[in-house]
Amino acid sequence: MSEVFKRLERVSTGTREPLANIMDQAGWNDAGLIPAIAQQYDSGDVLMMAWMNRESLEETLATGWVCYWSRSRGKLWRKGESSGQMQILKAAHLDCDGDTLLLSVDQTGPACHTGRRSCFYVALDADGAQVDSDALIDPDQLYAPS
Amino acid sequence: MSEVFKRLERVSTGTREPLANIMDQAGWNDAGLIPAIAQQYDSGDVLMMAWMNRESLEETLATGWVCYWSRSRGKLWRKGESSGQMQILKAAHLDCDGDTLLLSVDQTGPACHTGRRSCFYVALDADGAQVDSDALIDPDQLYAPS
Fold first, then answer.
1. Cβ-based contacts of A47 with chain B (< 8 Å)
2. Distance between CA atoms of A37 and A103, rounded to whole angstroms?
3. By CB distance 3.0 to 4.6 Å, which of A57, A119, B7, B100 could disulfide with A49?
4. How far apart are CA B82 and CA A6, in angstroms?
5. Which H or E run includes A134?
């Protein structure tokens, strides 16, 4: 764990740190990415997990429009830019060792590309798995050419 | 994305799938791991993110005591086995592409090794970072020899 996160373990509420120190020492993986969990700010529903690089995190903090790094497309992904289902940032937290982000967001409509509100719809138990939510919007409509 | 998760995208609530198909086709990374988000089942607070391999997930679903894979120690990590701060599983979900887990848990005391309830206490804004929660328990007591 890097110096700044080790030091922040023992400090009290209200202690501040320059953003550059945090960005320099966050736990970016070998691809320069950190997993980011998106949680609906009022309901508490966990909506999705995606990835951010430093550029996407800095843009998100500056603009308030959540921007991820798309690993499949290899470029910045402003959530909702093609589907219209945007995420507006309410708060962002790094965890104790600086390698995971929790984003409190206001999600328009479905967060999931399947049209469901949340990506977490495959419920597991000791015997099997069961889909436990339906789409809010037909996914063919979500990405239809306008 | 693997066949089973592609197929489940378009099915309705209640559709079931054998657990073995899910385990065989989940999006384990090159190290055989999937990130697992732990959320307190009643408050909705996101507590931490850790990693699971197939063995730890199967054990967790079978026993109801959340078991992760410790990357630093290279072994199964039954949450709370050294600190006493256990996590009891209430529900588990995989996401749409089968490569992230969301665990609904009942967490005893602090989830974080710093003694805080949640690991997400480094709040970020456009100007800097600020610690926004205090420890519930002195971390020196959390892992003290009994």
1. none
2. 6
3. B100
4. 21
5. none
Q: Distance between CA B122 and CA B72 in Å, rounded?
A: 22
Contact B37, B102 (CB under 8 A): yes
Report the C-alpha gap between B43 and A98 in whole angstroms: 24
Q: Given this model, what pLDDT does residue A142 score?
A: 81
Asked if B27 and A122 touch (Cβ cutoff 8 Å), the reply is no
Residue B145 in this model has a pLDDT that exceeds 70: no
3-state secondary structure of B26: coil
**Angstrom distance (rounded) from CA B98 to CA A120:** 9
Whether this model's ipTM surpasses 0.90 comes out as: yes
Of A11, A44, A91, the CB nearest to B123: A91
- The amino acid occupying position A99 is D
Single-letter amino acid, residue A80: G
A21 φ, ψ (degrees, to nearest 5): -60, -40
Helix (H) or strand (E) holding B91, with range, is strand B87-94
Cα distance between residue B137 and residue B118, in whole Å:
12
d(CA A46, CA A118): 7
Give A116's contacts in chain B (Cβ within 8 Å): 96
List, for residues B37-96, the tens digit of each pLDDT value: 999 999 999 999 999 999 999 999 999 999 999 999 999 999 999 888 999 999 999 999
Torsion angles phi and psi, residue B52, rounded to 5: -130, 140
